[in-house]
Amino acid sequence: MSGYHLTEEQINKFNSDGYLVLPSFFSKSQTDGLLNRAHKLLSDFSLEGHPMTKFSTGESVDHVGDDYFLDSGDKIRYFFEEGAFDDDTKDFRSGVSKETSINKIGHALHELDDVYREFTLRNQSIKNVAKELGAHKDPKVLQSMIICKQPKIGGKVPVHNDSTFLYTDPPSAVGFWFALEKCTPTNGCLYFKPGSHKTSKVHSRFVRLPGGGTGFETLPGMEQAKKQEEEIGWDPENFVCEECDAGTLVIIHGSVAHRSEHNYSDKSRFIYTFHMIESEVGLNPSNFQPIFVLGEKNWLQPTEAMPFIDVDVQAQRARKMEIRQEIHPALAAEERKIKEIPPSLRICHAQKFLIPLLLAFRLRVRVYCLSLSALLALSLVGSTTQAAYNPNYANKALVQRSIVTDPSQLDGKSFDFLIAGGGTAGLALAARLSEWSNVTVALIEAGGDGSNFKDRIDIPGYSYLNGLTGSDYDWKYKTVAQTDALGTVKSWPRGKGLGGSSSTNGLFWSRGSVEEYDSWNTLNPNGTEDWGWEAMTAYINKAENFTAPPKWQTDYYDIPYNVSDHGTVGPIKIGYCAYMYDSVKNWVPAWVNLGKKRLDAHSGANVGVSFSPSTLNTENSTRSDSQAGYIAPLPPRSNLVILTGFQVTAISWNSTVAGNAVSNGFKFKSTAGGNEGQEYTVTANKEVILSGGTVNTPQVLQLSGVGPSSVLSNLGINVVSDLPVGYGLQDHVSTAVKFNTKAGTLTWGNLINADEAASNLELYRAGNYTGSQWSYVNEATGYVSMADIDSDYTTYVATATAALDQNIKDITSWQNIPDNVAAGYRAQYEIQNSWLGKDIGQLEIILSMLNGMNGAGIQVGLQHPYSRGSIMINSTNPFDYPAIDPNYFGMGYDVDILNKGLEWARTLGATDPMSTFIADETLPGANVTGTDLNTFIYTSSGTEYHPLGTCAMLPQSSGGVVDTTLKVYGTSNVRVVDCSIMPMQISAHLMASAYGVAEKAADMIKAAHAYVPPASVTSSTSSFVSTSASKTTTQSASASTTVATAAQAAASGSESARVSGASRSEHVSWVFALGAGAGVISWLAIW
Fold this sequence. Notes:
Layout: H1 8-17, E1 19-22, H2 28-44, H3 67-70, E2 77-80, E3 102-107, H4 109-112, H5 114-121, H6 124-133, E4 139-147, E5 157-160, E6 174-179, E7 190-192, H7 196-199, E8 204-208, E9 214-218, H8 223-232, E10 240-242, E11 249-253, E12 258-260, E13 271-278, E14 280-284, E15 289-293, H9 311-327, H10 330-340, H11 343-360, H12 366-369, H13 372-377, E16 403-404, E17 414-420, H14 424-433, E18 441-445, H15 454-458, H16 462-465, E19 477-478, E20 491-492, H17 514-522, H18 533-543, E21 544-546, H19 551-557, E22 572-574, H20 587-593, E23 608-611, E24 616-617, E25 622-623, H21 626-631, E26 640-644, E27 646-655, E28 662-670, E29 680-690, H22 693-703, E30 706-707, H23 709-714, E31 721-722, E32 727-729, E33 733-741, H24 754-765, E34 780-784, H25 786-789, H26 793-802, H27 804-815, H28 819-836, E35 843-848, E36 855-862, E37 869-872, E38 883-885, H29 892-909, E39 918-923, H30 930-940, E40 942-943, E41 974-976, H31 991-1009, H32 1027-1037, H33 1043-1052, H34 1055-1062, H35 1069-1073, H36 1076-1079
Parallel strand pairs: 16-26, 17-18, 17-29, 18-26, 21-22, 29-41, 30-31
Antiparallel strand pairs: 1-11, 2-3, 3-4, 4-13, 5-12, 6-11, 6-13, 7-10, 7-12, 8-9, 14-15, 19-20, 23-34, 24-25, 27-28, 28-29, 32-37, 33-36, 33-39, 33-40, 34-35, 35-36, 37-38
Helix pairs in contact: 10-11, 14-31, 18-31, 26-28, 27-28, 29-30, 32-34, 33-34
Organism: Phaffia rhodozyma
InterPro entries: FAD/NAD-bd_sf, Glucose_Oxidase_domain_2, GMC_OxRdtase, GMC_OxRdtase_N, GMC_OxRtase_C, Phytyl_CoA_dOase-like
GO molecular function: flavin adenine dinucleotide binding; oxidoreductase activity, acting on CH-OH group of donors
């Protein structure tokens, strides 16, 4: 993404000082354009009939008490300098003209003037800075103005902070102050007291008075602070003068003390400024249009004429409404009905009708291609998350959690949504679905909460040297004997506990290429949901909270990254390890010497060399897994129950009508007690959701009667839906070339020494993360295409293409797969064959700084295997593991490509400067080539821990198990939300994509039910919502609820009625969160 970007040092300086000066932020042509426009506005301004409203800053002056000031949000208003008028004649002073008399032009230039709107709302640099600053979750421009500071008469502005004058609770203002002319001490430049935003209190607020006009209100409990400030005053010696040139941007924290002096010079000091605040967008019940929602005390209020949202977006939105009405006339009729409904009930009714209709008639227009969360992603920052964005802003309520081990918390009870599996996707989904307190969510996880394995989860290096493989936090799966890998049995570790594999994996944060995600759409030509690159990367970004590496690290290790390719406000912390071995600096240069590109592999094209960021909280160098990101930091959440130590054994069915089976919940048992233990049940009011992963999800479905009829019937299981559950298994398979390292090379093997391990752990616990080897994880990566590893790749592509029919015939006969699954494989192979001739990663190459005491390795992972396997139950006992058969090397292409990849890895190791620390090859041995190398591959290779596809999101004619809304075919309320739905492999580790699937699924599920959430996310102060209350609340918002029912509930004063919209002024945040019903809010803040 182009434009200006903040550095880590700049962000730290802003947080430390409370302001940040960015010289040359905008160009001379931009400066001239804005300044010329300001003079044009002054020139066109007419004094005829104009009130002589003066403007000043300070508590002692009744300067803006008239309607002219209070209504300045829907017109361009002009305010005069106090020194512009003769005290006796009330006319302009001598030498003062109309053009030189104005102090300020405001207060909505970013909406009302084309030039300033373009600069404010279409400026990529401003977007970047606001996003990277991290002060808001959803920033909105509240006010904008030109301040002129006229020659000789430009008045002094006393010490103040901006949050006093912009009423938000809590304070959230950030000022963007653009110098249009040179600002000097003689013409009124800014003075700041650095750090005062941390020490001084906002004790008073400038407010709109109920009876008209404005005044200052001392905040409760702040009387003493105000008195002390008035008595002590501000020492001018503690203020720093910030002289600056035209083109400079000054970013101003809302609580930092600043001032400016009188303009004593003969030169003006024009600046343009606007303020961003944290607020919400709701629907105006009188016309059902979006409107900026502010506290009633804020002096500046939106109106129907100017709702403080981008007018260009309003025009686009109006056109899209026309398109929707052309597509479905019922929309127009429904809007006419809305106008006949009492205003207090419009929100409830609109949501009942419009959200399902939006989904039913979803347009392939950009705004509507995005489901609800992607609508939010059009905002400046992107999307709602549950972590603090910036510790200096307390503008985000904390969500709540409740983790229990007592089955009675679920047994016999009912919840709106039930989730099986608390892994990567499961916890993310639970957190999102329970964001509103009138919806209840229960999650069941077979493993523990991780408290017994805290260090082995948290400490980065432990994931490799002291990991959880083989522990109780691992399912400890094994494959069946792999026929085409010389009969070897492979270990298949999978995370078992809260966080799932996000708690046990190697921390890699990566995503596939544009074509790979787009292939998911290609395979679903009639899908109603978008699963291509744009949708998936938006949802991955929603989960991501990226921190760029420090400059010294970027320079020394040549780390290629681009902040704009990442999300920066999500709950999962992403960064680079604090400690890196010195030899890692050779990685990127060696690739470059082989003619490969440096790139950020998150850009949508990943062939080349990069450093993969990790799921790391860089502040304390700990793993950021799904529990740490979405659940663990948060206080108890009354409407979310997470039960650990219990395993879902089957889905319960209320109805098994063919093609429309309805689940009413789960059966579950104690993991420790096994199948002999007591059986418990829990009921779902709305949906049951499987998030057990590529192994556990198909197992539960098959045990519940959803799967291949041939498998189920043989086990005596009643068939509820005959689907190819368990087929389509695809896994990255990998091996490595290993080397000794040259004398003096420090590697991870150093930690095999107990004393070294202990001393490095001591450094880590002391917070010396850059000095401790326990902070290291493998991050040096790259991807190569077929052309990179085979000079005759065109022949290879032609051979694979010509053999397509035979390949399908072979795999069908070998594995006895259903015809529709074979048809799906054909479609996938056609895409894979095309990728062989494109710049798409076929192999992942990873530098591993571990090979015994003094060695290193280069791992090679096959990214697009042709082999397809399966996972099938072979027992009705849910505690018996299913048969896991990835069918490694069942198709000969896979070993061919891996063979070429190992040879390429050898070339890389021998290339300067990798050759400066790489010595002789230890495995498989430099002389092992050809078929001998294949033998090595068969015996040494194993899972790269990225299985997918066993509940594929495909049409039923192609072997699909779920549709593009993730609903299981043949059921009405069963969904799958995990990697098992992914229909084709991507050249990336799957964790980031798993989060993307969960985030998108959460939005789809919310929208499908169109319930009415309350005013805010649940917090420690939220009222408890019982299971029975949840039923009432959600029923009042369901599509079957009539307006009359809502009216009756409102009359009874029930909780459900209050939440449903009877008290609009208190319950508006849901409008933004749900995309405002039919999508009338496509963007609501600064673009």
